[in-house]
Amino acid sequence: MTGQLKWNCQDQPISSHTRVRFWCDQQVELRFDDQRTFGQMWYVPPDRSLASVVTAFQTLGVEPLSADFTVDYLVAKLNLSKRPIKTALLDQTIVAGIGNIYADESLFLAGIHPLRSCHSLTVKEMTKLHKGIIQVLQDGLEYGGTTFSSYLNSNGTKGNYLDRAWVFRRTGAECRVCGNKIDRLKIGGRSSHFCPVCQPQ
Ligand SMILES: [Zn+2]
Questions:
Q1: pTM summary value
Q2: pLDDT along the chain (201 residues), means of 10
Q3: Could you tell me the domains of the chain?
Q4: Distance from the alpha carbon of residue 44 to the mean position of ligand 1, in angstroms
């Protein structure tokens, strides 16, 4: 989303978008700026579990960079579903933390068209998708995430994954693998970017 946690000197003027300030005794403070007010914050008392306070955690699927995220898990979750794979990847109860960018990018790496229904995918394709999800998330971490408009990390720098994205927000540009033009479709209300040649339907 568009909010940001950022370290500031305490004498720095407060933005009109600053919602929360964390003080510390070294003349700096951590400020949470959130222009669009989509952000949420919880206090978890030491005697409570995270999931008992932040109840959304109870329904989240596995972490994609954890040992629980296996090909078998993905196959078990997807092989009975008739939904488009793009929609299923954005379902946070299946795999937690895959947003629109990394869903498009991992489908590209796996060579899977975003409209393919989950149950049509072979185990070989699911295996490639599993590998692609891990790869794009690791690349995203390495390149500091993806910057939209005002997003900055806590040091005030922008993420630069988008500079090297395979398909995301590259509509009309040349595919980095085959040279054909990247296409875009709306699936479940979300823009989906893909290469029609590398990801045939
Ligand atoms: Zn291509």
A1: 0.78
A2: 82 92 89 88 93 89 95 94 96 93 97 97 97 94 64 59 88 97 95 97 90
A3: 1-38 (no CATH), 61-201 (1.10.8.50)
A4: 46
